[in-house]
Design a protein that fits this description.
alpha+beta, outer membrane lipoprotein receptor (LolB), chain A, 4 helices, 14 strands
């Protein structure tokens, strides 16, 4: 290769790198410009719509595949079955791996009970433990429950971010997080992402909901990703064989069902 050819290639490479840098910078500026204030009159109706979507259907049951992924990309798998009646009653029983089979969680309003077969023991989960990671995952007991945001939070701000609405809300009672940012699809009003912010405004946990599928007219996220933004560890929850409005009895959501072997 001649010196002249080398110089041409070097100059071309520098120009390409500069162009890419300029393009990336332009994209960042464009992204910043996409954030616009949302009319205050739309804040409360939008939050109520989220609550309505979250409480859709009389009951629901499904298979759960839970995938734990560490920063290095190494994976661990778990399987469970899930039952829900109304907004505040949920029952989750783990099936795999064998070492965790039978572990069952009952959520009834603010009360959470956990049954561990190898200990032959049921215990009530204290309030201060509900926000802690469960069984090495990025889910807490609170994550396994359901939240009606309108009743428990105050809206601080509303914005339009590209194709999404963003509501910033603060809890009315003391919580493990300082604020939440909810990202809602503008078209379908479906909650797609939740950012948990600390007192400095830093996002330390992120929840993404994707692959929405219609079951009896209800939009259900088939995949939800919970991610620790500090450790980059994440937990992927996949829902399969989702069934809606099958007539699940309220008697199922009692402590005596914790010790039973459940099936869909």
């Amino acid at each position: 290769m001649t010196n002249l050819s080398f110089v041409k290639i070097f100059v071309s490479s520098c120009f390409l790198m500069f162009a890419c840098a300029q393009s990336a910078s332009a994209e960042k500026k464009a992204a910043k410009k996409e954030v616009k204030p949302l009319e205050k009159t739309k804040w409360a109706p939008l939050l109520k719509q989220i609550d309505k979507n979250e409480s859709q259907g009389k009951d629901m049951k499904a298979q759960m595949r839970i995938i734990l992924v560490n920063k290095a990309g190494e994976k661990r798998m778990r399987e469970a079955i899930f039952f829900q009646r109304s907004v505040d009653r949920r029952l989750i029983q783990f099936k795999k791996p064998a070492s965790e089979a039978g572990i069952t969680v009952l959520i009834k309003g603010a009360d959470v009970h956990l049954y561990i077969p190898r200990l032959h023991r049921t215990r009530r989960i204290a309030a201060h433990v509900k926000n802690q990671p469960f069984m090495g995952s990025d889910l807490s007991f609170d994550d396994m429950g359901s939240t009606l945001y309108s009743a428990s939070h105050t809206i601080e701000a509303g914005h339009v971010v590209g194709t999404l609405y963003r509501l910033t809300i603060t809890p009315k009672k003391k919580a493990s997080y300082h604020k939440l940012q909810l990202f809602i699809d503008k078209k379908d009003k479906l909650l797609q992402r939740v950012d948990y912010l600390d007192s400095k405004g830093t996002c330390y946990k992120r929840v993404r909901r994707t692959l929405f599928k219609r079951t009896k007219g209800y939009a259900i996220p088939a995949r939800t990703i919970y991610q620790d933004m500090k450790t980059q560890h994440k937990t992927i929850v996949l829902l399969r064989k989702v069934q809606m409005d099958t007539g699940i009895s309220k008697r199922m959501f009692t402590r005596r069902y914790l010790k039973r072997e459940l099936e869909l």
